[in-house]
Amino acid sequence: MIVAERKNVPELIDIIKEHKNILVLGCGTCVTVCLAGGEREVSIISSALRIASKVRGLDLKVEELTIERQCDNIFIEQAADAINRNDAVLSLGCGAGVQAIAERYANKPVYAGLNTKFLGILEEHGIWTEKCAACGACVLHEYGGICPVTRCAKHLLNGPCGGSREDRCEVRPDRACAWQLIYQRLKNIGQLERLKKIELPKDWNASLSGGPRVIIREDHRI
Amino acid sequence: MNLKEFEPKIVAFCCHYCAYAAADLAGSMRLQYPANIRIIRTPCTGRLEIEYFLKALENGADGVIVAGCEEGSCHFKEGNLAARRRVNYTGELLAESGLEKERVRMVNVSAANARRLVDAINEMVENVRRLGPNPLKEKTPMKQEICP
C-alpha cells in the first residue's frame, strides 16, 4: 500500500491560511490503513487546525469528509457538494489523490495535507517499512523475493557491498542488510546458484527516470 | 479574565475499574477535591481516542486529565498503556497547534488510592490555573453539554 505521514500543524496552517472555509478530505483506502488520512485522522487534524487557527486569530471554518478513494471518479463525485461549498480542499490522500481532485476541480485550490512516503507494508503496530520502489521492471524473482533496489541503501543488483556489519547495513545501522537477507533467503529455498549470475545494468527507463509512466490496456478500453 | 477569579474547568476521563472507584472512595473518605473537575466514566482508558481530548479542549475545557489503572493492573491488560501513548501524542499535537501540552495529562491511580487521585486532581487544577484559561474559550462560547 501507499504509506504517508501527516504534515505538521504549523505547515498546514501556513498552506491554508489565506482561506476561510476549508474542506479536509480524507481517503478511505491506503492512507486509512497507514493511519495518516482516514476518517479518524481527518477528525484529529481538523480539530488541530481549528485549535491552531483560533490561537492564531484566524477565522477558519473546517469541514470534514472522507470518501472511499480519492483516486477514483465514482468516489470523488460523492465529495462534489462539499468541495463546491468550500474555498479550498486540504486533501489527506496520497499524492495521486490530491492530483485526482485538483484535476477535476480546475478552479478550486487543492492542497496536500500529507507527505506521501513510499510503497510499503505494516511491519508491526505503528511501524511501516518500504518494500517497493515501483521501478517498473521487477527483479524480485532473482533475489528470493527481497528487493535490492528498495531495501539495499546502495541499490546494488550485484551485492553485497562488503560494508555490512553482522547483518546490519553500513549506511543505516538500524536497518537490515538487504543482501544478507537475500543470501539467507536464497539459501533457504535452495537457489544460491542465482547469486553466481552477474546482473547487467538495470534499464531505468521503466522507472520514474524515464518520465511519468502510463499504462494503456486496449482490451479494457471502451 | 482576572486570574484570581479564574476557575478552570477540567474534563476527567476516569476508568470504571480504578479512578472512577477511587473518586467514589474519595467521597466515602470525605476527601475533598475541587469542583473544577467534570468526571466522565469510561470502561477503560484504552477506549479513549485522541479526538476526545481534542474535542474537549476545542469546545472550551481548560484541561483534560485521564485517570487509568496503575501500569500492569489494567483490567483489559494494556488499555492504560495505550491511553498514555495517546495522551502523549495529543500533547505533541497541542504544542504544534499553539496550546500548552500540559493541558492534557495522564495519571495512574488504583481503586484503593483515593488520596492519589485527589492529589493528582489538585495538582492538575493548579497547573491549569497557572496556564490560564483556554484561549479558545474567549473566542468561542463553551458548549453547555461539555462544560456546564
Name some characteristics of this structure.
heterodimer, A: 222 residues, Rossmann fold, 3-stranded antiparallel beta sheet, B: 148 residues, alpha/beta, 4-stranded parallel beta sheet, 4 strands
Shape of chain A: elongated
Report the portion of residues of chain A in β strands.
15-25%
**Which two chains touch over the largest interface?**
A-B, 15 and 17 residues
Give the strand line-up of the largest sheet of chain B.
2-1-3-4
Main β-sheet of chain B: number of strands, strand sense, barrel status?
A: 4 strands, parallel
CATH class of chain B: Alpha Beta
On the 0-100 scale, what is the average pLDDT of chain A?
96
Name the CATH architecture of the largest domain in chain A. 3-Layer(aba) Sandwich
Q: For the CA atoms, what is the radius of gyration of chain A?
A: 22 Å
Q: How many beta-strand elements of chain B?
A: 4
Order of strands, main sheet of chain A, comes to 3-2-4-5
Number of domains of chain A: 2
Instruction: Write down the CATH class of the largest domain in chain A.
Output: Alpha Beta
> At the third CATH level, what is the topology name of chain B?
Rossmann fold
Q: What is the chain-wise order of helices and strands of chain B?
A: EHEHEHEHH
